[in-house]
Write a structure and sequence with these properties.
- The structure is a homodimer.
- In chain A, the strands form 4 sheets. In chain A, strands 3, 4, 5, 9, 10, 18 and 19 form a 7-stranded mixed beta sheet that branches.
- In chain A, strand 14 (about 215-220), helix 7 and strand 15 (about 235-245) form a beta-alpha-beta unit.
- By secondary structure, the first copy, chain A, is α/β, with parallel strands linked by helices.
- The longest helix of chain A has 13 residues, at about 140-150.
- The first copy, chain A, folds into 2 domains: about 5-135 and about 290-320, Medium-chain alcohol dehydrogenases, catalytic domain (Quinone Oxidoreductase, Chain A, domain 1, Alpha-Beta Complex); about 145-270, 3-Layer(aba) Sandwich (Rossmann fold).
- The first copy, chain A, has helices at about 35-45, 85-90, 130-135, 140-150, 165-175, 190-195, 230-235, 260, 275-285, 300-310; strands spanning about 5, 10-15, 25-35, 55-65, 75, 80, 100-105, 105-110, 115-120, 125, 160, 180-185, 200-205, 215-220, 235-245, 255, 265-270, 295-300, 315-320.
- Helix content of chain A is about 25%, strand content about 30%.
- Strand 16 of chain A pairs antiparallel with strand 16 (about 255) of chain B.
């Protein structure tokens, strides 16, 4: 099959072996995939991943031995393939299973290939009528929902999202649904405008500028994708407030924590979230993900798509596996 | 009056001006004070404090203009003197008032002098019959109670306290009351023995040794007082578990946070706590603080007391203001 392969660098290969689903897993034909900042970080060395990247996808189950009812079903999938039997899994924290593999990130080939495999237990049916270009956002939207799974954000809270990238825009939209007093801070006026049109307050700051004049927030979400986002976001949290850390990247974040003790700040690391909740929000059109689509490429132009996704300020770049191929870059 | 004074270094002075209580405050004659690690850190430059150190005390109200009912009452006191009217105070977070002074730590002379002043609103009556040497632990015990104020520790939780210093021993005793599965890790066999005698599981590790063989904990409390405690304690927290940071010290704690995001760890900075709860625990003899007393010195030997408190592994050193003076070092 055709696949994007990351070894020392990215290659497009025509003859990658089509996977065969092990027991309990399904073979899925990928219809559409999204490129995430994490994919760009993998190329930089994050997680030391080698193989097929890609973890945002929508596809159709081609073969599911022992679970034939899934065959033909359009699905999205939880990217964490857990053992299901260890103490962590039995405690309900399967996304933290110490034996897990993670689709296109750790120990498991991902979605930027014509086929992938995932455990049947990881699959969620996509509602009929939901376009692929919406369903493909299920995984990143679930990561945004994870904030509300971990932190009780009240309708009366003052909340700040730092970062107007793809993740920041999704986090902001989910947080806006709580009714909280929300401000999103970012460096890109055109991206902030997407939120402003939705009625979300935004603050445009230049790179390196200090954020001034904002009252301290009950909850701050750091979604810049950069290590230097920590200090800025930390300074925006009120005493006893909560700082949610959403960014993951290659390279260490070194944070000065002494004053976080004095101010009794709660820091919450936040990663993958609940896919069913994300699907519900998408089905209810509570979140507008199509506003985040910057470009679509056919799969044979995936290297170009990757380069596009790596441009400074780029929003979501989608990769389309279904013929007819659309013109490169047309959205 | 006689006072211990910190400028470039510590001095014992005979002629420090006796304070006069401003409106709303009380003049308190100190009966007994405790020396805390924070006091030792102040000498190292923490908070850049200059003045009379000391914030653990029990004393008697000598003069309380407008609140004469307090006069003659033996009291302990909340060390955070807040404005009472700002948004932070009105939200119930007076210990984080941006205008606050802190007894013997920031902008306010402390308890290692014959007299101190504190707002009447900060005072709590000491129950009759409670010895000074017990009541003087109210403030540090309240700091230990703050953990339970911030984090829901369940009776079924696996909890680790890292550090067997004064704060670690108090935190451990408070946590033990929840019924949780508790292990305290420390470097001093004789201090761990205090807890072992109370039925708390302990693990003695040599300085620099790696902690091995312990299952990951739901909640870990970092109470080592050293920056290097972070990495060790972090490694002991299960995914989605909670790490409570109790240590404050001069100098920056630089923590690698990327893996805390991947593991979705919650970090909670924790400082001063509820004095009434601490007094209730002391009155119920639910916590044994006298086991932590290492030495008592008369106030005129306070410099010797400070040197004693600074010895590696020293437990609580008390300073006694009441005649007759006891022999130095006798407990």
């Amino acid at each position: 099959m055709r696949a994007l392969l990351l070894d020392e660098e990215l290659h497009f290969v025509e003859d990658y072996p089509t996977p065969s689903p092990p027991p309990g897993e399904a073979l899925i034909r990928v219809e559409m995939a999204g490129i995430c900042n994490t994919d760009l970080e993998l190329v930089q060395g994050y997680m030391h991943f080698r193989g097929v990247p890609g973890h945002e996808f929508v596809g159709v189950v081609e073969h599911a031995p022992g679970a034939e009812a899934w065959e033909g079903q359009r699905v999205v999938g939880d990217i964490n393939a857990a053992c299901g039997v260890c103490a962590t899994c039995r405690a309900g924290r399967h996304t933290h299973c110490p034996h897990r593999t993670t689709l296109g990130i750790n120990g498991r080939d991902g979605a930027l290939a014509e086929y992938l495999t995932l455990p049947v237990a990881n699959l969620y049916a996509v509602p009929e009528g939901m376009p692929d270009e919406v369903a493909v956002f299920t995984e990143p939207l679930a990561a945004a929902c994870e904030i509300l799974e971990q932190v009780h954000v009240r309708p009366t809270d003052r909340v700040i999202v730092l970062g107007d990238g793809k993740l920041g825009l999704l986090c902001a939209q989910v947080l806006a649904l709580t009714g909280c007093e929300l401000t999103v801070i970012g460096r890109h006026a055109e991206k902030l405008d997407i939120l402003a049109r939705m009625g979300v307050a935004t603050l445009h700051v230049e790179r390196g500028a200090t954020v001034k004049g904002l009252p301290l927030a009950d909850v701050v979400v750091e979604a810049t994708g950069h290590p230097d986002g920590y200090a800025t976001s930390r300074a925006l949290v009120r005493p006893r407030g909560t700082l949610v850390l959403k960014s993951t990247y290659h390279g260490a974040l070194e944070a000065a924590l002494t004053m976080a003790v004095v101010d009794e700040i709660t820091l919450v690391g936040s990663r993958c979230g609940p896919l069913p909740a994300a699907l519900r929000l998408l089905e209810r059109s509570a979140v507008d993900v199509t506003a985040l689509i910057e470009a679509r490429y056919p799969f044979d132009a995936v290297l170009t798509a990757f380069a596009h996704a790596g441009r400074r300020g780029a929003l979501k770049v989608l990769v389309d596996f279904t013929p007819p191929a659309r013109p490169a870059g047309a959205s």
